[in-house]
Amino acid sequence: MSASKKKIYIFGCIMWDVVGKPVERISSGKDCSGIITEGPGGVAFNVALGLSKVLTANSFELNLVSVIGKNEKTQIIYSSLIENDIKTKYMTVKGSQNDTYLSIEKENGEIFGSINSSDVFLSSQNDIKEIFSYICARHKQSHNKAILIFDGNCPREFFDFVKKETEEEIFTKYFIPANFSKLNEFKNDAHYFKGFNLFINLREANVLIGSPSFNNSIDASKAIFEKIKTETNLIIVTDGPNVACGVSKKQIARVKPSMIKEKVSRLGAGDAFFAYFLSYRELNPDASINESLSAADEKTQTFLKNK
User: Fold this and answer.
1) How far apart are alpha carbons 272 and 55 in whole angstroms?
2) Which of 37, 174, 211, 225 has its Cα between 20 and 30 A from that of 233?
3) What pLDDT digit, counting tens, does each position of 25-76 carry?
């Protein structure tokens, strides 16, 4: 294994996004005109894409670990990954179906409602575990450090396996649920993620904390950190347009995101924010949490304006 490049592995769903964008105000039961777009997406895909925009292939190797079906969309997904220097050697092609995300947006770009199906990924956990074991074995043998990123479609059974196989001195682990409803199996069990870096929103934080719930990111991030703190881990709790808070053993940072004034789609904004945050920290290891959050906010605003 080459030691010249830092390896980053992103585990999770590649979704085929189908998004309805109305040109007028939408409400329940209303039929309105608009635009329907579709293409590759999902948290894991979006994070990998965001990282590829900042981290150069000369210094970093990005690997997406996921499962897709063999159909007319397969080549589109692969082409997008290859064009952005995202490695596909740990991708599994199985069956003929793709995991799908269906979303309807409001006129201002906020999400009105969504449905996602992750059956393809979830039904292939044995394949994912086998790949994960192979990756871990290689890094343990070479002692080369790596970053592991997991999206919220990874089930608890897989995380049980991850916790047994990973050593903190080699692997830095990030968890990005991106869907509070999928955290129910971890309800009131924040301690489970000791050894992970968490990048979550306030609603997700309250699922992990259970009772009492918190109404701001500052108190929530502090409460979770107390449950899972280590010498090196980090908790980031976002709260939409309100203050985002980051906590580590040495720092507490509070950053209020820039206001989104344009009517642009918010789809993938949270994934991009995490990718830019992690990219900045990797390129600037001495940067404070505040600096990393501020840099991520600035780049996310550019991401939204260019959509």
Assistant:
1) 13
2) 211
3) 888 888 889 999 999 999 999 999 999 999 999 999 999 999 999 999 999 9
Predicted TM-score (pTM) above 0.85 = yes
> What are the chain's domains?
6-172 (3.40.1190.20)
3-state SS string over the chain?
CCCCCEEEEEECCCEEEEEEEECCCCCCCCCCCEEEEEEEECHHHHHHHHHHCCCCCCCEEEEEECEECCCCCHHHHHHHHHHCCEECCCCEECCCCCEEEEEEECCCCCEEEEEEECHHHHCCHHHHHHHHHHHHHHHHHHCCCEEEEEECCCCHHHHHHHHHHCCCCCEEEEEECCCHHHHHHHCCCHHHHCCEEEEEEHHHHHHHHCCCCCCCHHHHHHHHHHHHCCCCCCEEEEECCEEEEEECCCCEEEECCCCCCCCCCCCCHHHHHHHHHHHHHHHCCCCCHHHHHHHHHHHHHHHHHCC
| Residue 170 near residue 208 (C-beta atoms within 8 A) | no
